[in-house]
């Protein structure tokens, strides 16, 4: 059975996409994970080239104009995020299990250009837990938190657009479930 090579992981803000991706990176180094470009400033502890490629607006504009992004979007009415196309192509050409950790808008764009990918929705155990995680990060002020929670309500409503849902009860379990899914054959996504 041929492993699924590209998985697209998306879900609402503060669901733990980045944390689950970090756990996949740590526990399954054979899986390649794309590093997105963004125009937002780094959060405490984030490293350029590891968590994101932090770029200015002019650099992002050039990436868009030169068609160097597989997908891109304005997120939370502020910063732009996008997936550099080149590294994805190289990883897939090498036959390496690969994952994109992106937002809902980006997942929709990738579905149009790479419909054979497996689209995984990462869901919180409950709305209250999502709110607790967002508040617990302590990286957004009250206005930004409210904006992100409004966006999260819309994002949660998009779950049916995805092939598979994983509930993020516990980070390592979610990461292992995601990698197990990558290793199933394409005909097994509904398992």
Question: What is the secondary structure topology, with strand pairs?
Answer:
Elements: E1 6-10, H1 17-27, E2 32-33, E3 37-38, E4 53-54, H2 57-65, E5 69-75, E6 79-84, H3 85-93, E7 98-101, H4 104-113, E8 118-123, H5 127-137, H6 142-156, E9 164-167, H7 171-183
Parallel strand pairs: 1-7, 1-8, 2-7, 3-4, 8-9
Antiparallel strand pairs: 3-6, 5-6
Helix pairs in contact: 1-7
Give a verbal description of the structure.
- By secondary structure, the protein is of the alpha/beta class.
- It has a single domain, classed as 3-Layer(aba) Sandwich (Rossmann fold).
- The protein is built from 7 helices and 9 strands.
- It has helices at 17-27, 57-65, 85-93, 104-113, 127-137, 142-156, 171-183; strands at residues 6-10, 32-33, 37-38, 53-54, 69-75, 79-84, 98-101, 118-123, 164-167.
- Strands 2-7-1-8-9 form a 5-stranded parallel beta sheet, sandwiched between helices. A 4-stranded mixed beta sheet has the order 4-3-6-5.
- α1 (17-27) crosses α7 (171-183).
- Mean pLDDT is 88; it is low at 186-191.
In short:
It is an enzyme of class 2 (transferase). The protein has 191 residues and is α/β, with parallel strands linked by helices. The chain has 7 helices and 9 strands, in the order βαβββαββαβαβααβα.
Keywords:
single chain; 191 residues; alpha/beta; Rossmann fold; 4-stranded mixed beta sheet; 7 helices; 9 strands; 41% helix; globular; disordered C terminus
Order of helices and strands: EHEEEHEEHEHEHHEH
| Percent in strands | 15-25%
Strand order, largest beta sheet? 2-7-1-8-9
Mean pLDDT: 88
Instruction: Report the sheet with the most strands, covering strand number, pairing sense and barrel closure.
Output: 5 strands, parallel
How does the overall form come out from the CA principal axes? Answer: globular
Count of individual helical segments: 7
EC number: 2.7.4.8
Protein name: Guanylate kinase
Binding site for ATP: 11-18
Catalytic activity: GMP + ATP = GDP + ADP
């Amino acid at each position: 059975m041929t492993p699924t090579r590209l998985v697209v992981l998306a879900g609402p803000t503060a669901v733990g996409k980045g944390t689950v991706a970090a756990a996949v990176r740590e526990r399954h180094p054979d899986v390649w994970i794309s590093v997105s470009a963004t125009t937002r400033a780094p959060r405490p502890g984030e490293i350029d080239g590891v968590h994101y490629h932090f770029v200015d607006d002019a650099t992002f504009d050039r990436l868009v104009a030169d068609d160097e992004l597989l997908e891109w979007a304005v997120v939370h009415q502020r910063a732009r995020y996008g997936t550099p196309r080149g590294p994805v192509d190289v990883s897939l050409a090498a036959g390496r299990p690969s994952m994109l950790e992106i937002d809902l808008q980006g997942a929709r764009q990738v579905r149009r250009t790479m419909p054979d990918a497996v689209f995984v929705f990462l869901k919180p155990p409950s709305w209250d837990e999502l709110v607790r995680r967002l508040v617990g990060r302590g990286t957004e002020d009250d206005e930004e938190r409210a904006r992100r929670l409004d966006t999260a309500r819309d994002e949660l409503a998009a779950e049916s657009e995805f092939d598979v849902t994983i509930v993020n009860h516990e980070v390592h379990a979610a990461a292992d479930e995601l990698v197990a899914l990558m290793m199933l054959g394409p005909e097994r996504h509904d398992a």
